[in-house]
Amino acid sequence: MQVYLVGGAVRDALLGREVKERDYVVVGATPEQLIKQGYQQVGKDFPVFLHPKTKEEYALARTERKQGQGYTGFICDFTPDVTLEQDLIRRDLTVNAIAQAEDGTLVDPFGGQSDIENRLLRHVSDAFSEDPLRILRVARFAARYHYLGFSIAPETERLLIAMVKAGELETLTAERVWLECEKSLSDGAFAEFLNTLFKIGGLHVISPTLESQWSDALYQTMQARFDYANKHSITDTALLFSQVTLSLTESDIHTIAQQIRLPNEVRDVALNTVAHRSILTDKQPDCDALLGCFNRLDLWRRPERLNAVLKALEISEQKPVACITQLHQVTEQASAVDPQQFIAQGIKGADIKTALENARLSIIKNYFS
């Protein structure tokens, strides 16, 4: 039985990046052997095991045979005679198909080290086209390593374009598309991810409207926003994704939410930011409109909604909104108005709400009239 470190850990170590997790491939073993050594199998039909102490993943060397459509239609063979090279050839990119033996020796049958030196993302074999998920994965890797000068190899880019034209992206589940978006947002390189998808004709998998609007100018705008977020250590997924939807309508956002199954909190921040952007960025907002904004955001019970919108707008402008100080002061005072004071005055029924609205509006006018 031989154990090799594989994939991202080897790649990132060669790039001098922090290695966050380690995956291993085991050659010449059976599931029974690993279980006897205390490894815990993950799933019933997939040969992945957790180390008894480190809980790192150890997968039996395997081959894959395509059967059916999409990215799940594969049959795995993980018998002990599957070689390391057979395992590596099923991987997506050469930079991800390098293994490291326990003595530190690198096994690199497909030129991954050379491609790392030349900053190229190149597919390992023709089997690449059997898995449509790899379209998004390559876009994500291209975005993540763009700052290091990486680009997609011409032959791989041609293959990606052909796969997109063949409708391969349409076989992916909405949840899987969102997961790849979420990973790219976490990388802090989402603008580059979107731009890469646009170049290969695949941005419609997120939003056909966004694809129709895309331009170098919009890309540069997105890049500036994400650079600001990175600089200020803003990592909240909903805040980051809202930057992509600021040029879209509320109807467009609802379409995206359905198309790629946006989590509710991501969808809501995007919708609220688009809906209230103009009033909250106005240096002298209309007082009645501002009160309406607060009411629709349910500021009085959900102050975090307004805070999220203001932070999203800060990212979009790369600075806090013009009247941020006054907004914080007015919301603090208006939120402190207690309806019990009106009840104590003998006001009843619907008139309590009217009195409350008038009191809050009066506070707003003190700041913005």
From TrEMBL:
Which BP terms from GO are recorded? RNA repair; tRNA 3'-terminal CCA addition
Tell me the CDD domains matching this sequence: NT_ClassII-CCAase
Keyword Iron-sulfur assigned to the entry: answer is: no
Cofactor(s) demanded: Mg(2+)
For this UniProt record, the keywords arranged alphabetically read as follows: ATP-binding, Magnesium, Metal-binding, Nucleotide-binding, Nucleotidyltransferase, RNA repair, RNA-binding, Transferase, tRNA processing
- Enumerate the InterPro entries for this protein: CCA_bact, NT_sf, PolA_pol_head_dom, PolyA_RNA-bd, tRNA_CCA-adding_enzyme
The Gene Ontology terms for molecular function here are: ATP binding; CCA tRNA nucleotidyltransferase activity; metal ion binding; RNA binding
The residues covered by the tRNA nucleotidyltransferase/poly(A) polymerase RNA and SrmB- binding domain are 149-211
- The Poly A polymerase head domain sits at 3-122
PANTHER family in the record: MULTIFUNCTIONAL CCA PROTEIN
* Similarity-based family: Belongs to the tRNA nucleotidyltransferase/poly(A) polymerase family.
Q: What protein name is recorded for this chain?
A: tRNA nucleotidyltransferase
